[in-house]
Amino acid sequence: MALITVMVPCYNEEQALPFFYKEICLVASQMCEGRQPRELEFELIFVDDGSTDNTLAVIKEYAAEDKRVRFISFSRNFGKEAAIYAGLLESRGDYVALMDADLQDPPSLLPDMYNIITNSSNNIDCVATRRVTRKGEPVIRSFFARMFYRMINKISKTEIVDGARDFRLMSGRMVDAILHVTEYNRFSKGIFSWVGFNTEWLEYENISRVAGQTKWSFWKLFVYSIDGVLAFSTVPLAIASFIGLSCCLIAFLFIIFVIIRAAVWGDPVAGWPSTICIILLLGGIQLLGIGILGQYLAKAYLETKRRPVYIVRETEQD
Ligand code: UDP
Ligand code: MG
């Protein structure tokens, strides 16, 4: 017998949830068809990430009727990363599928994913998905997303696949490994890759959300991308050091030049504008360096506080 946990982070998804629930039930029954009773079972974990609409009420309705449904409700919005962590912690399945509530991660791929992870001879522990197109997404967003992936893969040893979704089916041992990564600043796309294990990639075209609104503004995504860089690379620190060193070198050459000039031609007092320019430039570079350092320090500060990643208000057992 195998148990598949499907876990879904939900933040204000009252409109999308009915579509999702219908679809996942359909897929689950298709997968159980033709198998022995109890050979394959499902568990559905909805993580309500502090929704302010009726999401929790909708989930509770499902939980009351369907004993496969479990839920965790947070005391406030802790973000998708926290929701993913909570869902993985609570999952009891031999396999855990992670998907969005808006049907942008088509549950219909689940049977294929399950076949690959169970039948493969090459020790696959994870079947992940990536979008090969970004159709339906604002052009500027796609452009910056591509830039981000190109940059982070240059400066980080952990590979972060362009277009990778969080949608994936993982074996229990991979989930265990992920749970051992207990850091506070969780950047799942990086953690999934960092823990290793053989991953098979399925590709599909971008699908628009079935109902409701995206929770990610351009600014939120920008901040998220910086979190990703800080969590998986220390190259910005090295760049700051490099710029500092280069400036020292240039300054040193310049000092020699000034001394020789003063010795040979005397010292005409001119060049106030250039002095100001240099002061401003160096001041800027220093502040930039301190800023980069500060970002890492801030992350380390939050990490040392050891605050819980999320706080539960209610579960189906209450
Ligand atoms: N989500 C969440 N907490 C948040 C933001 C989003 O749990 O603070 C969930 C959301 O309910 C959805 C998934 O994360 O199931 C992806 O969010 P969304 O569809 O808004 O992102 P997009 O697909 O536009 O990147
Ligand atoms: Mg979405």
Explain what this protein looks like in three dimensions.
This protein is of the alpha/beta class. The chain is built from 10 helices and 8 strands. It has helices spanning 17-32, 55-65, 80-90, 110-119, 139-155, 172-180, 188-194, 218-232, 235-265, 272-305, and strands at 2-10, 40-48, 69-74, 95-98, 124-131, 164-171, 198-204, 312-315. The chain has an 8-stranded mixed β-sheet, with helices on both faces. The two termini are 28 Å apart. Residues 9-11, 13, 49, 77, 79-80, 83, 100-102, 104, 209, 214-216 line the site of uridine-5'-diphosphate.
Question: How many extended strands?
Answer: 8
The gyration radius over C-alpha positions equals 25 Å
Distance linking N and C termini: 28 Å
What class, by secondary structure content? Answer: alpha/beta
Mean pLDDT: 88
Strand line-up of the largest beta sheet: 7-5-6-4-1-2-3-8
Provide a count of the helices.
10
Cofactors, ions and other ligands in the entry:
uridine-5'-diphosphate, magnesium ion
Q: What does the largest sheet look like?
A: 8 strands, mixed
Beta percentage is: 15-25%
Overall spatial form: elongated
Order of helices and strands: EHEHEHEHEHEHHEHHHE
The low-pLDDT segments are none
Binned, the helix content reads 40-55%
Write a compact overview of the structure shown:
The chain is an alpha/beta fold.
Q: Which key phrases capture this entry?
A:
eight-stranded mixed sheet, 8 strands, binds uridine-5'-diphosphate, binds magnesium ion
